[in-house]
Amino acid sequence: MDLRIVEHPLVSHKLTVLRDQATDSPTFRRLTEELVTLLAYEATREVRVTPQAVQTPLATTVGVRLSTPRPLVVPILRAGLGMLEGMTRLIPTAEVGFLGMVRNEETLEAATYAERLPDDLSGRQCYVLDPMLATGGTLAAAVQFLAKRGADHITCICLIAAPEGVERLRGLLDGLGVPCTVVLAGMDEKLNEVGYIVPGLGDAGDRLYGVVD
Ligand SMILES: O=P(O)(O)OC[C@H]1O[C@H](OP(=O)(O)OP(=O)(O)O)[C@H](O)[C@@H]1O
Ligand SMILES: O=c1cc[nH]c(=O)[nH]1
Ligand SMILES: [Mg+2]
């Protein structure tokens, strides 16, 4: 597993405002989108391209175009949905699939309640979006799902991670046989006794969309 923590003053600044408990939902949503666009620049370093001739007003030259099949972007509902716009701004032609997953707050086990993905992901590069990598259970389940369908390259883009979750994911990914990259804006200190990232930013889904009981 290739772990990349993006170090950039703009990323650090935006992440700090995002963490602030006084930041309201509209600002939180905007910052989430902006952060994803910045992380996507790093996360798409290996996106596949094909040489393509182009006629400029002065000459013909050879550039590149995104290869087909296009990358698949998979936001994990709910909170990952807040990252979709920031990602598709950078790759407007990406295909989008959806996974709905929720963590049981007692057992911390992830359960899947919705899935809308292509049946066959052979030869596809997939970008999974979820702001929080806490115990790692949710991302582990998502990555296994994509690998079973044949995805041959998986990149997870998260805003914040706990070291415990990253290690759990590393253990899984190293045995999966699918190249996988995890891109973060920040690695936090730890998980607390109820599975929240500390210092973190609280519940990302609630801060994006309000509390749902
Ligand atoms: O690494 P883990 O311990 O699995 O926790 C991380 C998950 O928890 C949050 O989702 P949540 O279950 O709160 O659902 P929501 O997005 O609908 O709020 C978050 O968005 C991740 O999906
Ligand atoms: O800190 C955490 C952990 C899981 N999910 C969140 O939204 N925040
Ligand atoms: Mg939540």
UniProtKB/TrEMBL annotation:
CDD domains: PRTases_typeI (cd06223). Pathway: Pyrimidine metabolism; UMP biosynthesis via salvage pathway; UMP from uracil: step 1/1. It catalyses: UMP + diphosphate = 5-phospho-alpha-D-ribose 1-diphosphate + uracil. InterPro entries: PRTase-like, PRTase_dom, Upp_B, UPRT, UPRTase/APRTase. Binds 1 Mg(2+) ion per subunit. The magnesium is bound as Mg-PRPP. Keywords: Allosteric enzyme, Glycosyltransferase, GTP-binding, Magnesium, Nucleotide-binding, Transferase. Its cofactor is Mg(2+). Uracil binds at I197, G202, D203, A204. Belongs to the UPRTase family. This is Uracil phosphoribosyltransferase. It comes from Friedmanniella luteola. The lineage of its organism: Bacteria, Bacillati, Actinomycetota, Actinomycetes, Propionibacteriales.
